[in-house]
């Protein structure tokens, strides 16, 4: 098959995230079995107009806005139209039902925005965004959908998409990279995510103020990049937590293991991942940590309530947890080694259910049914 993937970023984009890693893992496997795959996305500074990565043709056009206009132009200039167009949403879809008539189409959803708008934009913009996100689905009522969390499927149904039009597939994890290691002697928690407001990393820092008073040797390491870094640093410093809360690129005195893969080493050493995000498609870092025998403390929102089995592979909090609630979960793991060990072992076992080869087979089966 000739497959065109429309996704707002590619694997080399400076702001690459978990969604792009998923697309890459699927795309390179499609190529490996003989399919022709083109990945259309937006340009970035110093990025090549076109290049090939592991057999996947990358085509970059326009910016965050204009890429949506470049996509149909690119499509109609193709002498041979793709058999399948994978229309991936980053809040808004590429509107392929309006212009990709000569190909089979499938809409791919990582997550709805909805609540996220209010964390990232002013109120009036957020209200418009929520309405616009809902209205766009009117053009997709006869389009097949794919997602990887049952809670995301429920979100699609709430947007008016018929249950029969939605398929799900599981995500994978690289078990050669993510595997158990030696745990930190003292309590160590980590946040691994983009540093943006919707991830609510600030709540974890505030929770650390509470935990630190009871257990002064507890540490938190924040792994990730993003515009919210400055605000988070100021919050940490205002709470006098400079020695207890560190960002991964800082000098971490209690981080002693020599490793080229600092992220994985931290996942192996951590007692738990703390992830109180507003909304997720799944939360890849949850499964990556699970493979490292590290449970997760998460908010009870779409995606995260799929990737964590409550009281088995981690702890699911309320959808909008307070610092006190987060601190309570952290303290429960510090005080109860038996619980911590149970969650760690179960997280590891649960992670074994996920692999990229399995994920690919499920996704390819959905594509083939088109």
TrEMBL record:
One of its GO terms (molecular function) is glycosyltransferase activity. SUPFAM superfamilies: UDP-Glycosyltransferase/glycogen phosphorylase. Pfam families: Glyco_transf_4, Glycos_transf_1. Residues 16-177 form the Glycosyltransferase subfamily 4-like N-terminal domain. Residues 180-348 form the Glycosyl transferase family domain. Keywords: Transferase. This is Glycosyl transferase, group 1. It comes from Candidatus Amesbacteria bacterium GW2011_GWC2_45_19.
């Amino acid at each position: 098959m000739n497959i065109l993937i429309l996704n707002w970023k590619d694997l080399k984009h400076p702001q690459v995230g978990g969604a792009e890693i998923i697309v890459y893992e699927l795309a390179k496997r499609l190529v490996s079995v003989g399919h022709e795959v083109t990945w259309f996305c937006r340009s970035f500074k110093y990025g090549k107009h076109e290049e090939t990565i592991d057999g996947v043709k990358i085509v970059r056009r326009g910016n965050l806005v204009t890429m949506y206009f470049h996509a149909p132009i690119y499509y109609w200039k193709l002498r041979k139209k793709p058999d399948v167009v994978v229309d991936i949403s980053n809040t808004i879809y590429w509107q392929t039902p309006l212009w990709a008539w000569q190909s089979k189409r499938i809409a791919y959803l990582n997550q709805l925005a909805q609540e996220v708008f209010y964390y990232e934009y002013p109120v009036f913009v957020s209200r418009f965004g929520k309405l616009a996100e809902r209205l766009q689905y009117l053009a997709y009522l006869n389009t097949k959908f794919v997602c990887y969390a049952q809670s995301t499927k429920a979100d699609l149904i709430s947007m008016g998409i018929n249950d029969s039009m939605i398929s799900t597939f599981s995500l994978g994890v690289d078990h050669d990279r993510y595997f158990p290691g030696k745990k930190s002697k003292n309590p160590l928690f980590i946040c691994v995510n983009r540093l943006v407001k919707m991830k609510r990393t600030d709540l974890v820092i505030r929770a650390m103020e509470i935990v630190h008073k009871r257990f002064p040797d507890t540490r938190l390491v924040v792994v990730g990049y993003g515009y919210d870094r400055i605000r988070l640093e100021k919050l940490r410093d205002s709470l006098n937590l400079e020695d207890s809360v560190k960002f991964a690129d800082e000098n971490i005195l209690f981080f002693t293991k020599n490793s080229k893969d600092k992220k994985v080493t931290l996942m192996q050493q951590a007692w738990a991942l703390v992830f109180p995000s507003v909304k997720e498609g799944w939360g890849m870092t949850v499964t990556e940590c699970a493979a490292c025998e590290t449970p997760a403390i998460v908010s009870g929102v779409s995606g995260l309530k799929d990737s964590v089995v409550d009281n088995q592979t981690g702890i699911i909090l309320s959808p909008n947890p307070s610092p006190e609630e987060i601190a309570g979960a952290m303290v429960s793991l510090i005080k109860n080694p038996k619980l911590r060990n149970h969650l760690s072992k179960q997280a590891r076992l649960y992670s074994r259910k996920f692999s990229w080869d399995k994920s690919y087979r499920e996704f390819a089966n959905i594509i083939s049914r088109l």
